[in-house]
Amino acid sequence: MRFILFRHGHSLANQESRIVSSLENGTRATGGPLGTGFGLSQKGKQEVAKSAKALSDHILATAYPSQHARIRILTSPFQRTRQTADIIHQELCVFIESYRSALPQDASSSMPIISLEYNNGAREVPDLRERFFGEFEMKTPSDDLYSAVWREDGQNPFHERFGVESVATVTERMTRVVRSEEGSRKDLTGRSTDDATEETWVILVSHGDSLQILQTAMRGWSGDRHRQVEHLDTATWRDVAWCEALAHSHQ
């Protein structure tokens, strides 16, 4: 099983330098600069489409000959992530159709097979939501406010100063998603059903801090080090795996 961490595209909240981190504000279709909530900006939609095309190429280049690559998209319920996931799904559909059409008939048995598990789009997973930033909700400028929280994170991953969700809590729910997906690929003996003939790709569409903290956990680092992980810019993705020390418990 492969995990792709995909951060949402540039959003209307990013455009305003505003923190929108609660489920209520992140999912509503009212308010914001356009009266439609805090979904993607036009810039965000364009950059997600471009990034999704690059991801399609990566999956094809990585899959083994004759291997069936099944793609599963999971998303945070926030508007900006839902819209990101929808664009990823659309681009993958176009890519898969084009790929299948271009395959020579005599090459079909030696080329990878690529398919989407959810034909109607992505599956919402509440645990992939944004980290909640407490009293800074709906405030600006976001960069200064985030920095104040991150300074505290570096001292104590359990802190809830300013009413924020702790790094430890985010770690627990984000890794729960990964463990749940890993469990879905195992048979009754506990062995993985993925092999050389089949691979499941799980695309997790989420948010900057949530994905930063998940990467930290998958590296086996303590939560206070999450700002040491290379940041995912908007609409960028990363192919990740558990560190060697933890990998054996996730086979």
UniProtKB/TrEMBL annotation:
InterPro entries linked: His_Pase_superF_clade-1, His_PPase_superfam
Pfam families given in the database record: His_Phos_1
Name of the protein in its database record: Phosphoglycerate mutase
Organism, scientific name: Mortierella alpina (Oleaginous fungus)
Source species taxonomy: Eukaryota, Fungi, Fungi incertae sedis, Mucoromycota, Mortierellomycotina
